[in-house]
Design brief:
Elements (H helix, E strand, L loop, with lengths): L19 H17 L4 H8 L3 H14 L8 H20 L6 H8 L12 H7 L3 H13 L3
Helix pairs in contact: 1-4, 2-3, 4-5, 4-7
Length: about 140
């Protein structure tokens, strides 16, 4: 058997593998972030494309089992990453020590990034397609370059 290193492919050249631990971390972060974004459990489940029951089961499983977390679908783990990317893009636009502005931009109606008197929260809840989220993140990041 030829090792990856002997073929000239080192583990450092490989994209990182997304594991269920990433999913667990994402779910915990997002469940905490949902409160500051004023998202109910049902709304958070809607953003993730799952039922409220499924979301609650995952959270209970993580709380009760720690390292033996539920197997999360790759699409949901991807969604965690996109929502984290959205949060990061918003924070990068805020002045130093004013990251609370990012939360306000998420919750309150804005006339930015193609949104007209609507909040990011409402925009994403009304159109949960991944493409909508990616487009919004790109528009926000364009302002930081």
């Amino acid at each position: 058997m030829v090792s990856r290193v002997s073929r000239g492919v080192s583990p450092l050249n490989q994209p990182p593998s997304i594991t269920n631990l990433h999913g667990t971390a994402g779910l915990l972060w997002l469940s905490n972030q949902a409160e500051s974004w004023h998202l109910s459990g049902a709304e958070l489940a809607h953003l993730l494309g799952v039922t409220s029951t499924t979301l609650n089961d995952w959270l209970a499983n993580i709380e009760n089992n720690g390292d033996h977390s539920p197997e999360l679908p790759k699409s949901v783990i991807e969604r965690f990453g996109l929502l984290l990317g959205l949060h990061k893009a918003l924070v990068l636009l805020t002045p130093a020590d004013h990251s609370e502005m990012a939360t306000e931009w998420f919750r309150k109606p804005v006339n930015l990034w193609g949104l007209t008197c609507t909040s990011i929260r409402e925009h994403l809840l009304s159109d949960t397609r991944t493409e909508t989220l990616i487009t919004l993140i790109r528009q926000i990041r364009a302002e930081t370059t």
